[in-house]
Amino acid sequence: MSIILSIPSVDELSPAVDALKRWQYDGGPLHLHPGDLGWHSSRGAEATAAAIRMWLRDGEVLALGLLDGPDLVRLAVAPEWRDDEALARQFAVDLDAPGRVLDPDGATVEARGAERLTQLLLERVWERDEPWTTFHRGLSDPVKDCGLRIETIESDRAEVWVAVNWSAFRGSPFSDADRRRTVGRWLTMAGGPFYADARCLAAFDQNDDAVAVAAVWSAGPGRPGLLEPMGVHRSHRGHGYGTAITLAAAAALRDMGASSASVCVQSSNVGAVATYASAGFTPSDEVADLRRGSR
């Protein structure tokens, strides 16, 4: 049977995510994780399904991609198919053809662990992009207390979480329109098909101000969990709150049965690199996305 490129329906999301969960294991690459789909689902289930690409053979899902915008696809490949020559070549054809999967004017592929695909794309005049560092922390032992009050955010407290996350990643004034839109998206995510395996956490200082937030995503008991995103309010940086919320996130994943906690950051983000290291996360070798070069 030939390999088919497909876009799932909303009803097909659940079996696709089940497959993605099975592909997560300790010692494996930090490729596309169910939590990445969960974070994307703030756009709604229909938009999330429309952003997914599946490669199938005889009904079996061999690989999944998430279009994180029109010019970036983030991939995961079933472990037993990662070195398959036919799949790698079909990948290369589909990803290299402008407009088939990625925007004709720009294309970046996150293909961690897919070494044969990487080789084929480099042969097709693709280039290595900015390096990223993957961090892992085993969770067999208890995680030390972070020293702050940690709250698991429910729907009635969504505004607290999104306000800190906005400050951490946007930095611009948080208008009423921004608040309504981002709270609405958080509620869509929390009410969607992925959030049963997630928690959103907020850390509070001695004045009971929310100072840092994180989201954690499980792939099921005994499998690696994902920490994404993590951020500290711009008015509260420099006090170790990033380390504290990261420790709280690791503890939450342990409570959820995860075997380890993982996160990936741009290697140039020295602050984030230092934060994860201080929270007991161990870096792996750098990885780089692939960018379509000029013809």
What would your notes on this structure say?
- Pfam families: Acetyltransf_1 (PF00583).
- It contains 9 helices and 13 strands.
- With 295 residues, the chain is α+β, with helices and mostly antiparallel strands.
- The chain folds into 2 domains: 134 residues, 3-Layer(aba) Sandwich (Aminopeptidase), CATH 3.40.630; 150 residues, 3-Layer(aba) Sandwich (Aminopeptidase), CATH 3.40.630.
- Strands 1, 2, 3, 4, 5, 6, 7, 8, 9, 10, 11, 12 and 13 form a 13-stranded mixed β-sheet that branches.
- The mean pLDDT is 95.
Structural class: alpha+beta
- CATH C-level of the largest domain: Alpha Beta
Share in β-strands: 25-35%
Architecture of the largest domain, according to CATH?
Answer: 3-Layer(aba) Sandwich
CATH homologous superfamily classification of the largest domain = Gcn5-related N-acetyltransferase (GNAT)
How many helices does DSSP assign? 9
Pfam families: Acetyltransf_1
Domain N-acetyltransferase: 148-295
GO molecular function: acyltransferase activity, transferring groups other than amino-acyl groups
Protein name: N-acetyltransferase domain-containing protein
Summarize the SSE layout with pairings.
Layout: E1 3-6, H1 13-22, H2 34-40, H3 45-50, E2 52-57, E3 60-67, E4 72-77, H4 85-96, E5 108-110, H5 115-123, E6 126-138, E7 149-152, H6 158-169, H7 176-190, E8 198-204, E9 210-217, E10 224-232, H8 241-255, E11 260-266, H9 270-278, E12 282-283, E13 287-292
Parallel strand pairs: 4-5, 10-11
Antiparallel strand pairs: 1-2, 2-3, 3-4, 5-13, 6-11, 6-12, 6-13, 7-8, 8-9, 9-10
Organism: Micromonospora saelicesensis
Protein name: N-acetyltransferase domain-containing protein
Domain N-acetyltransferase: 148-295
